[in-house]
Amino acid sequence: MDNAGLSLDRMRTFVRVAERGNLSMVARELSVGQSTVTRHLNELEEAVGVPLLSRTTRRVTLTDEGSRYYTNCLQILRLVEQAAEEARDARQAPAGAVRLSCTAALGVMHITRLIFEFQDKHPDIRVDLNLTDERIDLVREGIDVALRLGPLADSSMKLHALGDSHRLLVGAPSYLSVYGRPERPADLSRYESVVMSNVAGSDQIILSSHDGTSLMVPVSGKLRVDHGLAAREAFATGRGIGPAHLWLVHDLLDNGQLEVLLGDYGLAPVPVSLLIVPERAAIARVRLLVDFLAAEISKLPGIRRA
Q: Which residues contact 285 (CB under 8 A, 6 or more apart)?
């Protein structure tokens, strides 16, 4: 292996090409000629000793070896960045960017406001907020911290459990005045349900009684949505009933636009967690945001601290 070709510049070029899939696009981003990008890639492949990219006339894709090398390059480049940032943090107030990913509805309704409060306290810290309900690869997408709802699979990320999100079965008085209010769980199957198409098992509602008995009721509806804010709007306008996080509908319950159904029964709470890329956890600005969110999210409606 020729280590002379393993420079950080060549790694950065390779990472950008792997993510963009286009040499000319990367050349424009780096403000260099395409021949320079090609030379960096050739020198890197020569140094590594295996082909990292497969080139066609239209697109550049990773080989199997290239995919593994890409992941390692990301970690190396982020460690280099972290080392510089930690050195700066020791000499001055935390500054720079923190990349935060958050489930969309929670982000719009609450987390954006919390970020405003955080930046009022730390004006030199930029927060790049990514709103998505997809379980994205944090390292590949360059995310530092992710706020997640729901159970998590085994992960190499650092987990900070925040608590559980309490859920309620809700419906609009306008809908219930026409179709009546359910008196027992079995009644739910005759109502229109607002179904979350991106949530596994949303075609059934599982309720628990005071004695711990679980009751599963199949539900269906003509409206299926993949976003919590769409479900909120559907509930409020009387399109159907369904489970909702308290933080999603607390104001609608307070002003009477929604009401709780079958209040003697409970819905399973949903875990709320922060995932942190381990290599980023020690950076001062990342720690500040994580600590701030951990304290403030526990105050949101329906969030029960772990």
A: 85, 89, 94, 95, 96, 98, 122, 125
Q: How far apart are CA 302 and CA 228, in angstroms?
A: 16
pLDDT of residue 91: 58
**pLDDT attached to residue 243:** 96
Q: What is the pLDDT of residue 1?
A: 45
Which pLDDT score, from 0 to 100, does residue 76 have?
A: 87
Mean pLDDT in consecutive groups of 10 residues from the start of the chain, 306 residues:
66 87 86 90 90 82 89 84 69 83 96 97 95 85 91 80 96 96 94 91 90 90 94 96 97 97 94 91 92 96 90
Own/partner long-range contacts of 243-246 (Cβ < 8 Å, ≥24 apart)? 243/167, 243/168, 243/169, 243/170, 243/205, 243/267, 244/167, 244/168, 244/169, 244/170, 245/106, 245/149, 245/165, 245/166, 245/167, 245/270, 245/302, 246/165, 246/166, 246/167, 246/168, 246/301, 246/302
What is the spatial distance between Cα 250 and Cα 233, in angstroms, rounded to a whole number?
A: 13
Predicted confidence at residue 88, as pLDDT, reads: 65
Pairing, β 145-149 against β 96-102: parallel
> For residues 289 and 150, is the Cβ–Cβ distance under 8 A?
no
pLDDT of residue 269: 94
Is residue 275 a contact partner of residue 155, using CB atoms and an 8 Å limit? Answer: yes
Sign of the C-alpha dihedral, residues 163, 146, 77, 15?
positive
